UniProtKB/TrEMBL annotation:
<keyword id="KW-1133">Transmembrane helix</keyword>
<dbReference type="GO" id="GO:0140359">
    <property type="term" value="F:ABC-type transporter activity"/>
</dbReference>
<dbReference type="InterPro" id="IPR017871">
    <property type="entry name" value="ABC_transporter-like_CS"/>
</dbReference>
<dbReference type="Pfam" id="PF00005">
    <property type="entry name" value="ABC_tran"/>
</dbReference>
<dbReference type="InterPro" id="IPR039421">
    <property type="entry name" value="Type_1_exporter"/>
</dbReference>
<protein>
    <submittedName>
        <fullName>ATP-binding cassette subfamily B protein</fullName>
    </submittedName>
</protein>
<feature type="transmembrane region" description="Helical">
    <location>
        <begin position="101"/>
        <end position="119"/>
    </location>
</feature>
<dbReference type="InterPro" id="IPR036640">
    <property type="entry name" value="ABC1_TM_sf"/>
</dbReference>
<dbReference type="InterPro" id="IPR011527">
    <property type="entry name" value="ABC1_TM_dom"/>
</dbReference>
<dbReference type="GO" id="GO:0016887">
    <property type="term" value="F:ATP hydrolysis activity"/>
</dbReference>
<feature type="transmembrane region" description="Helical">
    <location>
        <begin position="60"/>
        <end position="81"/>
    </location>
</feature>
<keyword id="KW-0812">Transmembrane</keyword>
<dbReference type="GO" id="GO:0005886">
    <property type="term" value="C:plasma membrane"/>
</dbReference>
<feature type="domain" description="ABC transporter">
    <location>
        <begin position="382"/>
        <end position="625"/>
    </location>
</feature>
<keyword id="KW-0472">Membrane</keyword>
<dbReference type="InterPro" id="IPR027417">
    <property type="entry name" value="P-loop_NTPase"/>
</dbReference>
<dbReference type="InterPro" id="IPR003439">
    <property type="entry name" value="ABC_transporter-like_ATP-bd"/>
</dbReference>
Length: 632
């Protein structure tokens, strides 16, 4: 899987084997954006964040805008009031009379400072109300888009990687939202300082403004370096996360220890982490160099500004009282520029993650199925006509030219060796996947033309690896159909009994009220076989006319397995259901109405057990092999 490492052992997790996702390649241009592009990007990010804030709360958003604008205006007013104080005190030398005369102007300055402090506190309170609403809006949009995504999207590694990065982007977006107001008030303060300096003398305005530009350039360049590095190291980061999960997850702990590969995994983690840390150090050193250059250049520019003020005073171009105002304006501008640069820096950084996030949401929305008509009702006949299916990024189809018809009242078994396409075919039958070629019809109607959610209301799926819902035991069953009317718990108890899950629930410390997850205090975990019994109970409780059980007993003992298959076969006994059993244990499907044999993604035979045994072929071969294993 990789090249030899320093120890001579072949690396297990070679990041070079992972291609950079197409969505990441598209973001590289953004990471290399020039100053003008950055100048356009920050307002665009502000607009997006403001829109999300407006959607979260119009009242708090409007209040935030008012508070931050007023804060900036108060800063400007304080600067002008300061100029008035200097003029009154220093115009002809300070005297007791002039000091008294300057007191009203001084009171205005004090009032402006006090108002600015109160407005800062108000801004903090408004931000505290607004930022969580932005975060909630962002998370809601993301997960609303994801729950509607077509299932096959999650078989696309690029898409799942994009979703992972988008989830991590929410924190950066929250940080960006928290500084929008500071950037607004800081920008107003910068404008006020520049205007105040310009009023003192026209030459001082550009000097005040230019003093902050080097820091802005350094900050933006540093963020560009960071984001470009993030894109370059996506493959390494994905590998590192995989190795970390292997080491830390409870599900992996037993096998990692049984095969004594903990040390190997730790070494692999150290190797990948070292590669990433080298890149991180390189980027941070370059960012530090940029910041140093920016600060030095800003310091030089500020010093030149003071020199310019001194020369103007020396040559008589600037009165001494106004020189004091110029110095205050320059210091205020320096502080405001630092605040604005910090805010713009965070917003540019947040903007990159906003773009990544919005790309994910747009991609997710594009992967939804097109709006279609109502479902054709409970399926009486399910037909597959020339169905071929390819997984994303795969050239070889998982199924090829499959034709099959299922009718209500039948119990149909799908059998074959691993990788033959059984589970894929099961997902196509119920509409979880749509075929790449061909048609899947319910009651003569193409599933492409029906609402997928409405169609799935008629489906009960017992998955091979069922979700281990971190809910109460009874809710683990009822989630099969939460809106089912079962006031006396008769359907719930029946599902528990027929699935063998009743004894599982009875053994729990709080019975049905026990939460099935160790992530919660007092919660309990189940064994693999117990989880499968709960999954079967969930499928039975759903009470759907099309039941698909995909290897539902892989982790069960022989007695429990026999009971589960008997219950599943009984579902179609009344003639009102189609039951599909996917299994590799052929003894359990001998009584099926029809057995469909798959080889290499194609149907090679179908018939009853006796017919297939008489015909020879793969089914008889596999059945004989399993029979000899039990006989031995």
């Amino acid at each position: 899987m990789g090249d030899a490492g320093e120890s001579g052992r072949r690396t297990l997790f070679g990041a070079e084997e992972l291609e950079t996702p197409a969505w990441a390649l598209g973001l590289e241009a953004t990471a290399q954006a020039g100053p003008l592009a950055v100048a356009r990007a920050v307002p665009r990010t502000v607009a997006i964040l403001t829109r999300w804030a407006w959607q979260g709360s119009r009242r708090w958003t409007a209040l935030a805008v008012v508070v931050h604008l007023v804060s900036g205006v108060v800063t400007a007013f304080g600067l002008l009031a300061t100029a008035d104080v200097f003029s009154r005190l220093l115009a002809e030398g300070p005297t007791p009379e002039r000091v008294v005369a300057a007191l009203p102007a001084l009171a205005v300055v004090v009032a402006a400072l006090a108002a600015r402090g109160l407005l800062d506190a108000a801004a903090g309170a408004v931000t505290a109300e607004l930022v969580p609403r932005v975060e909630r809006r962002v998370q809601t949009d993301l997960y609303t888009a994801l729950v509607a995504v077509d299932l096959v999207a999650f078989d696309d590694a690029d898409f799942t990687a994009l979703v992972d990065r988008a989830e991590h982007s929410v924190t950066r977006i929250r940080m960006g939202a928290s500084v929008v107001g500071d950037l607004v008030s800081g920008s107003v303060a910068v404008v006020a300082s520049v205007v105040a300096a310009g009023i003192v003398h026209p030459l001082l305005a550009p000097i005040v403004l230019l003093a902050g530009l080097p820091q802005a350039w350094a900050a933006v360049s540093g963020v560009r370096l960071m984001f470009a590095s993030t894109l370059r190291t996506i493959a390494q980061a994905r590998r590192l996360a995989v190795v970390g999960d292997l080491i830390s997850r409870r599900d992996n702990a037993a096998e990692v220890r049984a095969f004594t590969v903990g040390g190997v995994l730790a070494d692999e983690h150290e190797r990948l982490a070292t590669e990433l840390s080298r890149e991180g150090i390189r980027v941070e050193q370059r960012r530090n160099a940029l910041v140093t250059v920016g600060r030095a250049a800003s310091g030089v520019a500020t010093a030149l500004g003071y020199v310019a003020v001194g020369l103007l005073v020396y040559t008589g171009g600037l009165a001494l009282p106004l020189a004091g105002t110029a110095v205050v304006a320059m210091r205020a501008a320096s502080s405001a520029v630092q605040t604005s640069v910090f805010g713009a820096n965070l917003l540019f950084e947040a903007g990159l993650f906003v773009e990544l996030y919005t790309r994910c949401v747009e991609d997710a929305r594009s992967r939804r199925r097109a709006p279609a008509g109502p479902a054709p009702g409970a399926p009486e006949v399910v037909e597959l006509d020339g169905v071929t299916f390819r997984y994303p990024g795969q050239e070889v189809p998982a199924l090829a030219d499959v034709g099959l018809t299922l009718r209500r009242g039948e119990v149909v078994a799908l059998v074959g060796e691993n990788g033959s396409g059984k589970s894929t075919l099961a997902k196509l039958l119920v509409g979880l996947y749509l075929p790449t070629e061909g048609r899947v019809r319910w009651n003569g109607r193409d599933l492409r033309e029906t609402d997928s959610a409405a169609a799935l209301e008629h489906v009960a799926l017992v998955a091979q690896a069922p979700v281990q819902w971190p809910l109460r035991a009874d809710d683990n069953v009822r989630i099969g159909r939460l809106d089912r009317d079962d006031p006396a718990d008769r359907a719930y108890e029946d599902a528990l009994g027929r699935s063998g899950a009743a004894e599982v629930v009875d053994d729990l410390p709080r019975g049905r009220a026990t939460v099935l997850s160790r992530a919660f205090q007092g919660g309990r975990d189940l064994s693999g076989g117990q989880w499968q019994r709960m999954a079967v109970a969930r499928g039975l409780y759903r009470d759907a006319p099309l039941v698909v059980a995909d290897e539902p007993t892989a982790a069960l003992d022989a007695r429990a397995e026999h009971a589960v298959f008997s219950s599943l076969r009984e579902l179609s006994a009344g003639g009102d259901r189609i039951t599909v059993l996917v299994t590799h244990r052929l003894a359990n499907v001998r009584t099926a109405d029809r057995i469909v044999v798959l080889e290499g993604g194609r149907i090679t035979a179908q018939g009853t057990h006796d017919e297939l045994m008489a015909a020879g072929g793969l089914y008889r071969e596999l059945f004989a092999l399993q029979g000899r294993a039990y006989a031995a």
